Structures
1.
Amino acid sequence: MNEKHLNALIDIAEKHGCKYLTQEPLSRHTTFKVGGNCEVMIFINSVEALSQCLEYCCKENVKKLVLGNGSNVLCSDSGFDGAVLLLGKDFQNISLADDKTIEVQAGCTLGQLCIFALNNGLSGLEFAYGIPGTVGGAVFMNAGAYDGEMSFVLTKAEAVNESGEKRIFSLEEMALGYRTSIFQSNGYVVTKAWLKLSKGSSDKIKEKMDEFMSRRKAKQPLEYPSAGSAFKRPAGTFAGKLIQESGLRGYTVGGAQVSEKHCGFVINKNNATFSDIKTLLQDVQRIVKEKTGYTLECEVRIIE
C-alpha cells in the first residue's frame, strides 16, 4: 500500500474516531496466533466508518481484510499488504429489540451474546457457548455445534457493501446452509444481526451452557491455538473420523499438528509458521483422499 492510500485510510479512521495501528502483527488478532504485519488496522466503531473504508478500498483498489475474532483464518507470515478492518470491541452493542429478540452488532463475541441471553432468560443460543468467534463471523459461516446453528435463531441481518450500500437481509435472503451464507459471495459485510429466542429458565439455560462447555474442554484441544474445526463435515461421515482412519492422529509438520485429542482440529503446537499449517492442511486433504476417497473441504480461510 502506498503512502497516499495509507494516509487516506488513517484520515477516515480519525474522522470517525476509530483507533488504528500501522504495521500491526496479525498474529495478535487470530486464534492460530500466526500472521505477519498488516499495513494498517482500523478498529471499526460504526457502520459509517466501515462503509467509508470499504468504499475507499474498492475505489482505489486497495486490498482489505475484514476480521472479527480471527477464529477461522490463517494469515501469511509475510504480512498483509492492505487494510485490516477489525470488527471487535468497538463494535459490539447488544440490546433487546423485544422480549424475545436480541439486536447485536457484528463485533460482539458469541460468548458475550450467550451470557446476555442467559441474563435475560432467553434460550436457543446455548449451542454457541464456547465457539470462539464474533456474531459477524458466525452469520458469515452459519456457525453451529451440538445440533444447533445460527440459522435456527437468526431472523435478519444488516450488512454493507463496497459501494457503501446498507441493506437488511431476511433469513431467506441470507441463504444459510452448512457453514455457508450469501455473504461469502455477495461482497456484503455483516454489521448487525437479530436473533429470535424463546423464554426459558435461567438455571436450565446455564446448565446446558455448562454442559456444552464441559464437552468442549473434554474433547477439543482448547489449550492450543487453532481455528476450531479445520475441515467441513463430508456428507454421511465426519472429518475427524476420516483423518483418524487415515492414520493421521498426531501428524506433524514443523510446529503444526493434527490434534491427538480431536483429529478434526489442526493446532499450533510449537510456534508453527503459516507454511507449517498450510502444508499440514494440504497433506491431510491429500492423504485422506488417497486412503478413503473423500475430499475434505477446508473450513479455514487462507489469507496470502
2.
Amino acid sequence: MRLKPVFRDLTTGSRLLMLILVILLCGILSLSVSYLLSVLIWGKSVLHEAGDPEMINLGFMRLTQMLNQVGFFLIPPFLFALLSERYPFSFLGFNKPRIIHFFAAILLLMAAGPLTGYLAGWNERLILPTELSGLADWMRTSEDTASKLTNRLLNAPGTTSLIVNIIMIGLLPSLGEELLFRSALIGIFRKIFRGIHLPVIISALLFSALHLQFFGFLPRFMLGLLFGYLFVWSGSVWIPVIAHFINNSSVVIASYLYNNGISAIPADELGTVSSGAGVALSTAAVVLIMFWVYYTRKSSPELSPVQQESSGTIS
C-alpha cells in the first residue's frame, strides 16, 4: 500500500521526535480514558487504592494495563508510519513470513530458557556501589512493587482470568512492543546508522530500560536482541511477535497450571537449569538457531522501495 505521507520530507531526527510526540500524546489520552472509565465503573476510591499493590482493584489494573498497551505501544507506530512513510505497512514489517522462521522462533524460545534464567539470577545479584545506595533502594522498591502487581494478576483464579491474562500479558505487549521497538525504532535507526547491529542493539537497550525493572534488565535486553535480529533477518514483524507472545504467554499458562495444582513447576523456574553445562548448551543452541535464521534470511539483489527508504537511498 503506497501513500503520500504528510511528513515524508522530515529529517530522520525530526521523525524520531515525531514518534516520541505521538507516543506521549497517545499515552496521555489512554491514561485519561482509563482513569475516566475506572471512576465511572468503580468510583473515585479506586484511584486512592492504586498505590497499594495489595488493595488495588484487579479490574482497574486490567483496564489500565490494556489501554496503556494500546495507547503507548500499539497505536503510535501505526500513526507514525501513516504520517511519515510511503509504504507504511511494509515499513512496519507486515510482510509474509517464511514458515521456517516461525519454527525457528518457537525453538529459540524453548532453547533460551536456561540462558535467560542464568542472566536473571546474575542480574539479581548485582550490587551497586555504596554511593548509589539510595538509587539501589529505589530500584529494589520499584521492582518489588511491580512484582507484587504482576503476581496479583497472574494468581487471579478462574479460566476467565487466564484468558484475560493471555490477552493483557501475552497478546497486546507482543504486538505493541514489537511494532514500537522493532518495527518503528529499528526502521528509524537504520536511516541513521549503517548496517543492522547498532539499530538492533539500541532498540534492545530501550526495550529493556523502559520497562523500568533494573533487576530484570539483562535477560530482557538479551530477548530484545533476539527479537531484533529475528525481525531484520526474517523481514517480517510477525516472527518476533510470535516469539514475544510465546515468551509472555508461557509464564501466564505456567502460573495458571501451578496455582491450580496441575503443575509442580513455578512460572519463574520454567525452562531453567541449575548446571553450568545446561546454560552452555542453551547458549550454543541459541547461537545455532540465530545462525539458522541468518542463513535463511530474506535477501534480494535489488532493494524494494521501502528497503531503499530505510537504508537512506531514497531522498
3.
Amino acid sequence: MQTEKTVIAPLICYDQWFPEAARVHALANAKIIFYPTAIGWTPQIKKEEPFSAQRWEDAMRSHASMNAVFTVAVNRVGKEGKMVFWGGSFIADPFGQVVARASATKEEVLVAKINMDLCHESGEGWRFIYNRRPGEYGGLTQ
C-alpha cells in the first residue's frame, strides 16, 4: 500500500511465521511491515513452550533484518478465556534492533520516530535482497 511517504504492507497474525510473506512485500518495495496479532500464553503453551514470547520477537526482528524493512509487531494485552496476551508491541528497525516497545500489561499507543534511511543502509550492507537466488527456490512452490 503506497502512502504519501512510503510503501507499507499490512499483513496478519499468522503471516509472521512464514518468511515468504515479508520477502514478497520487501521485493514490492515495502519499507514498513505491520503484523497485528493476538498472541500469548495458554496454560499448555506456557508449560510446553516457555520460550514462545522470545520466539515471536525473534521472528519479527528477523523479518526486519533479512528484508531491510521496519517491522511493527502489534499485540494485544490482557486476557480472554484461558489466553493471556503478551502485549509488548514493538518496532524493529531494518537491522533487527528494537527501537520502541509498548507495555506488556496495559493498553497504550506506541509512537516512534523512525529513520527511513536505515532501510537503504541495511539493504546495502549485507545485500540479502540482492544476493538471493530465486532460481533455486523451485521447491518452495511444490
4.
Amino acid sequence: MRIKYNRVSTLNQTGNRFTADNDKYDMVMLDKVSGTVNFKERPKAKELVKLVEDGKVRELVVEELSRLGRNTGDVINNLEWFDEKEVNVVVRNLGIQSRPNGKRNPIWKLIGATMSSLYELELENIKERTMVGRAVFVQNGGKLGRPEGTLESKKKFIEKPKNQEILKYLKRGLRYSEIEKLLGCSPKTIKKVRDFADVD
C-alpha cells in the first residue's frame, strides 16, 4: 500500500491545504493533534502502525517531516522503525526518500536528524513568541481569557472536542503538565474540566 499521512495541529483546522496533492494513494490519513504528541500515540498513526506491522505498507508519504512530529528523538526513532520495516518514507517538500528503488538512501539519517531538530527548534520559537506576545498584550492593558459576563453551561463546556480530550487524559491519570504538553492548553482549563466533570 501507498499511504499519505497528514497532520494538523488543532481540531479547527480542516486539512484542506493538503488537497493540492493530486498523487494517487491507497489510503489518506489525517490526524488532528499537536506535533508534540508522540507519533505512535496518535489515533490515525496507530492504524498506520498496525498496517506497517502487518507488512501492508510499502510507502509512506508526508508533506514535511514535522507532520511526523516536533520532537527530534521521536521522529528519528520512527524513521528508523519505518526503515527496519522497509517502508519507503517520502518527504514531499524536500523531494527526498528514505529507500528509493528499495535501497537505503545513504544521507537519509543525516537529513532526518537535521530537519527534525530544526522543527523542534521552530516549535520552541513559536512558543516563546506567543508568550512574549501575550505578555506585551497584558502590559498594554489587554485581558486574556473569555470576555467577562460570558455564560456557558457546564454541559456545553465539557462537550467541546478539546475538553473531551482533556477529560480522556484526566481519566487515564495523566498529570496537568503532561496534558498541557499534549494538547497545548492551560492548567486553568484542565482544572475547570476536572471540576465540571467531577473527576477525582
